Amino acid sequence: LFTACILAALKFIFPEHNVLSWDVFGYYLYLPAKFIYHDPYLLHQEWLNEIVSKYESTATLYQINQHPETGNWIIKYSMGMSVLYAPFFFIAHWLAPILGYQQDGFSAIYSACIEFGMFFFSVMGLYYFLKLLHHFTEKKIALIAFVLIVFATNYVQLSVQYSLLTHVPLFSLYAILIYHTVKWHESFSVRLLYIICICCGLITLIRPNELVCVFIPLLWRINQAGHFKQMIKESMKLPIASIVAFTLFLFPFFLQMYYWKCGTGSWLYYSYQNPGEGFDFLSPYTYQFLFSFRKGWLIYTPLAIVAIISLIEVYRKQRYIFLSIVITIVISVYIVSSWSCWWYAGGSYSQRAILSVYPLLGIGLSFGLQFLFNRFGKAALIPFAGMLLLNLFQAWQFQQDILDHERMTFAYYKKIFLRSKRPTDADKYLLVNRSAD
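Above: the chain sequence. Below: its structure as tokens.
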């Protein structure tokens, strides 16, 4: 609750403006298109153009593309975020005429309700994340690891400035998934299995490359003697429950595929049609993703280095969960660093695309903190306090456009390091300004 209050205060101090815009506009478009304008394939774009003009939602309609054979316009993002937004969208739609707002899907009441809903969901995710850490370490260590993951990484910046993007909701869903995975492998409860399958299905619907999340429940305690056989045996005991669980996992995919089928005539459709946009799996940008001063994850979030090294302690202390954690993290880094725009445009300080695996890194960090406290006592906190303060300051620099959103270089970084204003001669050290035009 204390953390939630701090994040809420920061959101009040640094409010988001026009939250239903740009990528979020694309995530959200399913709801007003279907339930207000009854035009899910955007064939009558007068209303869409009017909305974009009135609310300045986007500079171009890059969020949609036209299918050449049917003429339908297909939203390029999968509908997972719309599923999360939906309860708060319907509440806003009910409240709009009562409070004097337009029922157009984009007036201020819709933004407010959905932003509140996503904040509530993020707090729920933090609650499960803290419960997860408590499972593995003593309360003091769990609290320190929790605070560091929230405030010494780019989680704080994304939760305050870009809370309607996919990343913080994915963090919450991963925390819920991992916590229930831990409990399911202890009891093999059918109820927990259903929760796991719903989480995996929704995570993948939000961002299809997050299908990697299935490795968490499948590989958890996989190398513990006899555990995998017991897991199969328990599943065979309840065939109906297993079928229901698998159906719960697949149902979100069916919703997306049904949308594609009706719009394109095909059950599967690759909707990312923008030129130069896609995965380069044979030549990933992993080094730049991790170490570049343009947007390198380990450069701007050094706590992640400690968390990764701390996985050695996980291997030493609880080897049976090590494989699940490492495989999920490694594959996630490989996938998100293979995207052609590996710096993920200007919407985040550090690397936003990897935020989903922070609950796993939090487990590793808690083990590392325990080791450091046993070895050095309270003095171990000193470097972590420095990381936390540096992260908060640089997140502020990012918000103030001192730390450039896309064109950072090492030379420029040295010029603005710990500076509260952008030096007059610093811009010449940035990368070439290549405009969207």
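The chain has a mean pLDDT of 95.
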